[in-house]
Recover the amino acids of this structure.
């Protein structure tokens, strides 16, 4: 991260304490460094092999041409209720947020109801927790591009499986436009659709997302709403953040 993305030590400590409190932390987390990405580790301590992504057919050329080739135009079309993947499950539309040029891209499944009420992704309890989680490792959420698989919330409150392939391709399209250094997947839906793996299998390992233009490194952790509902999982989330922090400093 550049200097603008770094916090002063006092701010870092305050941010870390804030997200711990919001997540319901009631036990200490080890401060021992985790050699997730050491380049000279011994064979027995080496990292697991990257997750293999499931094979998928290429997008038809005509469909790719219909999607905006500029991230700001894409956001404007989403806000204007254009016919784009994930934009028609309900009336309320939540547009992706963050700068079009960034080092970290965040991908989640759906907006939360309180975000729909507030009219902005990240404006609810989950977003505030994610902001504190990233701040604890020196990353400003405001410096990240954050998109969800769907910009509207289905009546059932969950994405239909039949829609996931097209939604995943639309996220890949956004990856090609934003071109981040790395990607953070939050929640099981984003993990399964983009890495072809379950969240508990993918956590703690470096995955790769194939998209038109290349591959991007991806790390997976729990959705903040899961931590709010099950704060006992905060220690596992902290390990994921440590791994993300070490990669961000490479």
């Amino acid at each position: 991260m550049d200097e603008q993305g770094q916090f002063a030590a006092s701010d870092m400590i305050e941010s870390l304490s804030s997200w711990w409190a919001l997540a319901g932390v009631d036990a200490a987390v080890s401060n021992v460094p985790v050699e997730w990405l050491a380049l000279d580790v011994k064979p027995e301590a080496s990292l697991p092999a990257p997750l293999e992504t499931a094979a998928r057919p290429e997008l038809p050329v005509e469909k790719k041409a219909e999607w905006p080739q500029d991230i700001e135009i894409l956001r404007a079309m989403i806000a204007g209720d254009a016919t784009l993947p994930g934009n028609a499950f309900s009336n309320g539309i939540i547009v992706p947020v963050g700068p079009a040029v960034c080092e970290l891209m965040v991908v989640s499944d759906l907006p939360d109801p309180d975000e729909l009420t507030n009219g902005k992704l990240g404006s609810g309890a989950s977003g505030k927790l994610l902001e504190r989680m990233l701040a604890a490792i020196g990353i400003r959420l405001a410096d990240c591009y954050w998109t969800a698989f769907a910009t509207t919330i289905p009546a059932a409150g969950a994405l239909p499986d039949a829609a996931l392939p097209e939604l995943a391709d639309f996220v890949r399209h956004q990856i090609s436009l934003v071109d981040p250094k790395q990607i953070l997947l939050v929640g099981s839906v984003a993990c399964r659709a983009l890495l072809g793996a379950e969240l508990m299998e993918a956590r703690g390992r470096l995955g790769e997302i194939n998209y038109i233009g290349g591959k991007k490194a991806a790390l997976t952790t729990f959705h903040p709403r899961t931590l709010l509902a099950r704060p006992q999982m905060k220690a596992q989330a902290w390990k994921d953040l440590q791994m993300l922090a070490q990669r961000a400093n490479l």
Q: What stands out?
A: Residues 1-8, 26-50, 53-63 have pLDDT under 50 and may be disordered. The first helix runs from residue 9 to 23.
